[in-house]
Amino acid sequence: MLAALGVAVLPSLLPYAVEYTPGDPTVVHQDKICIALKDAWHADRQPPSASDLLAVQQHLFSSWPPAYGTQAQRAAWAAQERQWERQPAVQRVDAYAAWSVGPGACVPRGRHRLILSGIGLASTVGIALVLAAIGRRRRTRLAPSHEAAPPSDRDAVLVT
Fold it and tell me: Mean pLDDT, to the nearest integer, of 112-116?
C-alpha cells in the first residue's frame, strides 16, 4: 500500500528541466530544474487575446529594418519601432512571452504532474477502500452464525 502511494506521488516529486530565459541579456537560455510540488502553484497569467497576437504578427511580418539606407532612414525606422513597442497590445504580448519563458516556465508541466499525482492518489485510496470492503464482507460471511446453523441429529427429540 505504501509503495503504491509512493508511486502515485512520484510524478510531483521527480525533478524535470525546462528551457528558461533569465533576465540577463547575455544569456540566451539555460535549463531550469523544476519540481512540480514546489513550482506548479504559481499564479497563471492570462494569455494575450487573439487580436493582440494578430496585431503583433502582422507588424512583425510587414516591418523590416532598412538594411541599406541613410542614417536618417534607419533612425526614423527605429523611432517608429519604439513607438510601436509602447502600444498596450504589444506590451501584453511581450509580458506574457517573458513570463512564459521566465518565471512561469515550470507552471504548465508542473500542474500536469500534480494532476497525475492526484489521480494516482485517488485511485490508490479508492482501490484500498474497495479491497477493505471486500475483505470485511468475506470475514463476516465466513464467520459461523449460531442462529443460522442447520439442526443436527443430536438436537432432534424423539416424539413418540
Answer: 93
